[in-house]
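In response to a reviewer's request, we include the raw inputs and outputs for one of the modeled complexes. The two entities were modeled together in a single run.
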Amino acid sequence: MKVNLSSLDTCESSFTPLVVLELAQDVKEETKEWLKNRIVSKKEDGDDNNDFLTMAECQFIIKHELENLRAREEKMIPGYPQAKLYPGKSLLRRLLTSGIVIQVFPLHDNEALKKLEDSWYTRFSLKYQPLDRIRGYFGETIALYFGFLEYFTVALIPMAVIGLPYYLFVWEDYDKYVIFASFNLIWSTVILEVWKRGCASMTYRWGTLVMKRQFEEPRPGFHGVLGINPVTGREEPLYPSYKRQLRIYLVSLPFVCLCLYFSLYVMMIYFDMEAWALSLHESSGSEWTSILLYVPSIIYAIVIEIMNRLYRYAAEFLTSWENHRLESAYQNHLILKVLVFNFLNCFASLFYIAFVLRDMKLLRQSLATLLITSQILNQIMESLLPYWLQKKHHVQVKRKVQALKADIDATLYEQVVLEKEMGTYLGTFDDYLELFLQFGYVSLFSCVYPLAAAFAVLNNFTEVNSDALKMCRVLKRPFSEPSANIGVWQLAFETMSVISVVTNCALIGMSPQVNALFPESKLDLILIVVAVEHALLALKFILAFAIPDKPRHIQMKLARLEFESLEALKRQPSENIIEEKAPFTKEAKRENQMKLMAQNLKEDSREGNKEEEA
Amino acid sequence: MKVNLSSLDTCESSFTPLVVLELAQDVKEETKEWLKNRIVSKKEDGDDNNDFLTMAECQFIIKHELENLRAREEKMIPGYPQAKLYPGKSLLRRLLTSGIVIQVFPLHDNEALKKLEDSWYTRFSLKYQPLDRIRGYFGETIALYFGFLEYFTVALIPMAVIGLPYYLFVWEDYDKYVIFASFNLIWSTVILEVWKRGCASMTYRWGTLVMKRQFEEPRPGFHGVLGINPVTGREEPLYPSYKRQLRIYLVSLPFVCLCLYFSLYVMMIYFDMEAWALSLHESSGSEWTSILLYVPSIIYAIVIEIMNRLYRYAAEFLTSWENHRLESAYQNHLILKVLVFNFLNCFASLFYIAFVLRDMKLLRQSLATLLITSQILNQIMESLLPYWLQKKHHVQVKRKVQALKADIDATLYEQVVLEKEMGTYLGTFDDYLELFLQFGYVSLFSCVYPLAAAFAVLNNFTEVNSDALKMCRVLKRPFSEPSANIGVWQLAFETMSVISVVTNCALIGMSPQVNALFPESKLDLILIVVAVEHALLALKFILAFAIPDKPRHIQMKLARLEFESLEALKRQPSENIIEEKAPFTKEAKRENQMKLMAQNLKEDSREGNKEEEA
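The model returned the following C-alpha cells for the whole complex.
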C-alpha cells in the first residue's frame, strides 16, 4: 500500500502499487506519522497481498480497511485541532472532509487493462463483451451495466428490423401502426422479465446473487448534533427526522415543482418557435426554409440536455442538503428527483404533440430530432471530448516527468500523476439514465417513427465502445463494488413499460385505420380501447407475477447449495440445544432470528453503526 | 402422549393428555409394539413436558416429532407387508395412507378453553377479542384470521355510518354517489395498507414476524416413481414436471373454463327468471307479486352458494390429482382455481347488470339479495347447524359412557370419544374466502346500495361469535401453526381493491349527475373518467410503494435486535477467520451465503428433504 509519493523510492522490489491516497501539500509531519502508524498497525493482522485475490479485490479490501480505520481515544486529528473526532468516527472521512486527504483512488493495472481493452473494444468486431473480465477488472456493478447495455441493444434489434421496412416502404401510411404498437407493447414487457432472469444467472456465476446488504453506515456527508443513537446506544451525530421532512416538503418539493413548471414553459416557447418556423416556411416555401423546420427541434433538444444537466447539479445539492443519514436514502431521493424531471423534460413535448395537438407528422419529426440530437450530444460530451483533453494532458505530463525525474521509477510516478488528474467516475447513474430515456423514446412513441429503434441500436453499438473507452482511458479507475442486480432501475424501466402500454393503446385508438372501423360511434371505439388497455395491463401484471425471477437451473443450484450446507451443519457438532427442538417457541424464534441477523451483520464491518432507514 | 385408549388406566397421576393418535380397530399387536417403541425411543432425548411451553406448543412439538419419525432400515410396516417403506419416508404418513392410523389430533384443554371462551364470546359485549389468548390456545394462523376479521369489521364501520343516512334520506337519489364512490375508493386502498402494518406489529409481538419457511417437505398425498432427487441426491419418489403441466393445461384448465361457462349459463337463466317475474308482476300488479320480484335473486343466491361448494370439492380433487410435490404449490393452485371461479360466480351477474343492462335498480336489488342470502346461509351452514348436531351427539355419548365404564377415568375417555367424532377444521381458507367475497360486495358496488357495509358489519359481529363457537365447540382442536402474515390473501384483497377502483370510476362516469355536467359530449366525459381512473391507479401503486410495510417502532426494534446480536457475536470468539476479512471474494461470499442458508435450514427439521418449488 502506498501512503504518499515520497515513499516511492523505499518500496520493495515485489511491491505492486494498488491504491493512491493523496494528501494535501502542506500536511504536517506529525499527522503523516500518526496516519502511517494507524494504517500499518491495522495492516499487520491481514494477509491482503495474496495471489488468490484479483487486483480489484485487493483494492476493495484496502478501501474497506481504510474506511474502517476508526477513532479510538483520539479527540482530534493530530496536528489539526479543528478536525474533531469521537470514538467510532471513520478517520478517512474526517481526513477527507478536513481537506487533509484529497482523494483515495485505485491505480490501473496497465498490463491487465491492455488485455481487457483488446478483448473488449479496440478491435472492432461483432461479438459479445467479455463481461467476466470486465467484472474481474471493474467489479460487478460496472459489469452489470455493460451487461444490461449489451442485452438492451440486442433486445432492440427485432424492433429495429421490423421498423426498417416501415420506414422504407410505408413512410406516410400510419395505418399499419396497430401491428407495430402491439408488437412494441409485448416486446417492452417481455425483455424486462427476460433480463431479470439473465441477470440472476450472471450474478449467480459471480457469487453476488444472494448477497445481503442490510447494514449501512451513515454516508460521509451526514452531519448532526452529538446524541445517543437509539439503536446502538452509542454517542454519534443525530439529525432529527422532522427537520429533514421540513426541508424535503418546504424546499425541495416546491423547487422541483418550479423546475417542472419552467420546463413546461420552455416547451411552450419551443411550440411558438415551431409555429414561427412553419409560417416562415409556408410564406416563402423555399428549400432552405424546409431545413429551417428542423431548427426549433434541434435547439429544443440541446436546451433539454442543458436543463437536464443543470437540474442534476441542483438535485444533487438539494438532496445532499436534506442531510440523509444513509447512502441508500440519499440515492433514492436523488433518483426520484432526477427521474421525474428528466421524464417530463424529455417527453412532455411529445405527449403534448401526440395527445393535444394530435399532429403525427410533427410528433415524428420532433421525436427523431430529440432522439438523434441527444444521442450525438451525449457521445461527444461523455467520452470523445474528455478523451481528447485527456490525451493532450497525457503528452504534457510525460514530457514534464521525463524532464524532471530521471532517477526514480518514472513509470509509476508518471502513472500516479496522470491518474490523479483524471475525472472521477460518479457511478452508473448517468449511464442508466441515458438508457432509460432511450427506452422511453423507443417504447412510448416509436410506432410513429419506427426508425427510433434502429437509431437506438446504432447509438448503443457506439455507446458500448465509447463507454468502454471512458472507463479504461478517460476516468480514474473506480473501486469495484459488488451488486446483485441493477436495483432501482429495474423498477424504473418497468414503470416506463407500463406507461408505454397506455401510450400505445391511445395511439392505436387514434389511428385512422382503427377509427375507420367505427365510423358512427367514437364512444364505442374509446370504450373498446380502454377495455383492451385494461386487459393488457392486467396481463402484464400477471405475466410479471407468473414468470419466476430466477431461471430453473439457478433455483436448482441454490437449492442444492442450501441442502449441502444443511448436511455440513448436521455433521458438525451443534452448540445450541434449542435448535434441536421444534423451532416455534417465542424464545427459540427470537434466538434463531437473532442468529440469522447476526450472520447478515457479519458481512458488514465489525464497527458498523447500525440504524434504521432514515 | 397417548398411543391408544387401552393404555389409559396405566398413566401416571401427573399425566396431561395432549394428542390423540387413533389406530384402526384391527391393528396387529406386533405393529402396535413396534410403533410404541419407535415413538418412545425418539422421545427419550426430548424434554417436552415443560411449564415453559403452552399446551398448544407441546402439541405442536409432538406433531412435529411424530411427522419426523422416519423409516431407517424397515422395508415395510411390521405386520403390513403391503405398506412399503424406504429410508427417510415419514412413518406417520405411511401409517395414515395405509389406514392403520386413522387420525392424529390434539385434545382440548377444557379448563383453558372455558377461560378463553369467557373472555372471547360467551358474554356478549362490545370489546376487542383476546387475540393473544387465542394465539396461545390455537396458534398464530388462527389468531391472525380472527385479528383480520376484527380489523376488517372495524374498518367497515365508517362505510356503514356513511351509508346509513344515504339509505334513510336519499334512497332514490343516485346523484350523490360520486362522493360515496370516491370515499369507497380511498377507503379500500387505505385499510389494506394499514392492516399490513398492524399485522406486522402483532406478529412481532408473537415472535413470528421474521420467521422463515424456506424448506418444505413433500406433501402427504404426493406420489411418484422412486428415483434420485437432483437436489438431495437421495432416493425418493419423483414425478416428472411435464406430466403435471399436461394435467394442469389439458384437464384442469379446460375443466375450470367449462365451470366458468356453466356459471355464466346459470346467470343467464337467472336473468330469464328475473324477466319472467317482472312480466308477471306487471301483468297482475298485486302486492303478492312484488315480493315475487325478490324470489329469482334469492334462488340464484342459493344456487351460487351450492355451485361454489360443489366447485370447491372438484377443485380440491383436481389439484390433488395434479400431484404437486409441495404443500405451498398445492395451495397456490387450489386458491387460484377457487378464487377465479368464486369471483365470476358471485360478481358476474352484478357486472352484467351494472355495465350491460345499466339498470341501477335491479343492481341494488340483486346486490342486496345476494349479500344477505349468502350471509345467512353461511352462518347457518358453518356454525349453527353443526353446533346443534354436535350437542345432540354429545348427550348420546355422555349417556353411553356413563352406562359402560364407571371404573376408569371417565372424563378423559368421554372427551376423547367426543372429540374424535368432531369435524376437522380444514384451515382458514373458507373463512378468508367468505371475507374476500364480502369485501367484493362492499367495495365494488356499494355506492349503489350503501347499506351493504352496514349488513357486512352486522354479519361480521355475529361471524366473530359463530366462528369462535365453531373453533371452540364444534370442531376438533387444530394443531397450532406459526405464521407471519395472512399470506396470499393480502394479494387477493389488494387485487380486489384495484378492480374496485376501476368499477367505481365506471359507476361515477355512468351517474346521471356527472353525465349532466357534459350534456353535449359523452366523449369528453369518458376521456376524463379514464384519465382520472389512471391517475387514481397510479396514486394507489405509489401509495402502496411509499407506505412502509412495518411501522417505525417495529423497524427500530428489529434494528436494535440486529445490532445486539451483532454485539453478542463480536464478544464470542470467532471460529471463521474468513469473515474477519472484507466479505467479497467469491469463496467468502459463498461461505457466508451457505451459513445464512444453513441458519434458515435449522429452523426446519433435521431430516427435511430439501427441494426446489415444483
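As requested, we also summarize the result in words. Chain A touches chain B through 72 residues (CB under 8 Å). The two ends of chain A are 36 Å apart (CA to CA).
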